[in-house]
């Protein structure tokens, strides 16, 4: 699997003329094909396969697989090598969305412009499909060959951190022990949203750093640079999400707008106001761009992706 050839439209970018739409679309097409194939060949009860397909292959951005891909290509990797990690991160992301939407969590009935999985297929099936996507993510990583142990070491703790972030966010855990609302908010964002974004970027670098192919520029410069990029991007992504929740309609978002405020959740706009939140987005975008500047033009797609995420409208 590690030697699988990259699709032609996934060749690494090395020039400065970036087609913004292709930044997400090319990796999305490739990862969707790989995930469809994985689902097709896996022996599963039909209802479970249908439920997983509904949640996994619906109209999402596929941001996290794109981050794996563009982080790997920023290090000069063959994108085919990164495919198991791209699949794994989207499987985990979709598991988290399905479980987050459940009545016991956010109790949402709209996701990606369609009924949530528990509305579509029933609550028990949504729980089980989420469980299956979690374990299928680790099945996917096994296909990464010699990189698998390092990828597992990156992804598994990130999933645990994400779940910890969810506890802080939805159950209000540790509220008293975690300092100011802003400190608490940063901790929630870092874990709930940031952990997967960080793991996606770092897995891209790991895919590039195949054992026996030591490259000092890549191994000693790329990992710290891309980790710093990911940390700023994760925070920025969630602040934008908080702003969209306040500023956009349910129809535009494809998920219920205004939920955070209605639930009395800690968000950037509620803690520091809308204008200061926008300024923080700009600050984090600058931090993203600065972090990857040592990587030169190979990181142009990552820079373009950060700009796109700062100005997204859904
Ligand atoms: C319930 C196991 C469990 C974890 C919950 C990540 C998470 C923790 C819940 C998902 C819901 C949520 C609001 C997460 C914050 C991150 C976020 C904004 C997710 C939406 O990501 P997009 O915009 O979604 O990339 P698409 O649909 O485009 O893939």
Chart the SSEs and their pairings.
Blueprint: H1 20-41, H2 46-56, H3 63-74, H4 79-101, E1 110-111, E2 114-115, H5 117-121, H6 123-142, H7 148-170, H8 181-208, H9 216-247, H10 250-253, H11 259-262, H12 268-272, H13 274-292, H14 300-310
Antiparallel strand pairs: 1-2
Helix pairs in contact: 1-2, 1-3, 2-6, 3-4, 3-8, 3-14, 4-6, 4-7, 4-8, 7-8, 8-9, 9-13, 13-14
Task: Identify the notable features of this structure and list them briefly.
single chain, 314 residues, mainly alpha, Farnesyl Diphosphate Synthase, 14 helices, globular, binds geranylgeranyl diphosphate
General description of the model:
The structure is a single chain. The chain is mainly alpha-helical and 314 residues long. 70% of the residues lie in helices and 1% in strands. The protein has 14 helices and 2 strands, in the order ααααββαααααααααα. α2 (46-56) packs across α6 (123-142) and α3 packs across α8 (181-208). Residues 1-16 have low confidence and may be disordered. Geranylgeranyl diphosphate binds at residues 60-61, 63, 93, 96-97, 99-100, 105, 112, 162-163, 166, 192-193, 241.
